[in-house]
Amino acid sequence: MGKGVAFAFQIGGRELDPAQMEDPQEAALLQEIVESVVDRTELLQCSEHGEPPRFLCSGENINELSLEVFGCCESLVGEVEKLLNEAAE
Ligand SMILES: [Zn+2]
Q: Which domain of life is it from (predicted)?
């Protein structure tokens, strides 16, 4: 994982560590999500505050996850969301 990028998973109300999942397929799925997001955003930090973005991936189960972006201010969050949207196209 890139330096400074924090990534958390919360599934069914429980916080999960992809490295500690019993099912290797599920662990790989979560790891893929982390990598795809971190690859695109690891160099990004707030131009005003120097803070990196943080991510929370949450949902009722592993197949219905949505990603939320957190940051020190709205401009960082906006920048990250723009980058992720661009990369998805
Ligand atoms: Zn900021």
A: Bacteria
Q: Report residue 82 as tokens.
A: 């723009």
Partner residues linked to 70 by β-bridges: 54
Collapsed DSSP state (helix, strand, coil) of residue 4? coil
The confidence band for 61, taking pLDDT boundaries of 50, 70 and 90, is very high
Alpha-carbon distance of 33 to 29, in angstroms, equals 7
Q: Residues within 5 Å of ion ligand 1 by Cβ?
A: 46, 48-49, 72-73, 76
Which helix (H) or strand (E) segment is 54 a member of? strand 54-59
Distance of alpha carbon 59 from alpha carbon 57, whole angstroms: 7
Tokens of 89: 């196209």
pTM assigned to the model: 0.84
Distance 48 CA to ligand 1 centre (A): 5
pLDDT grade, residue 19 (50/70/90)?
confident
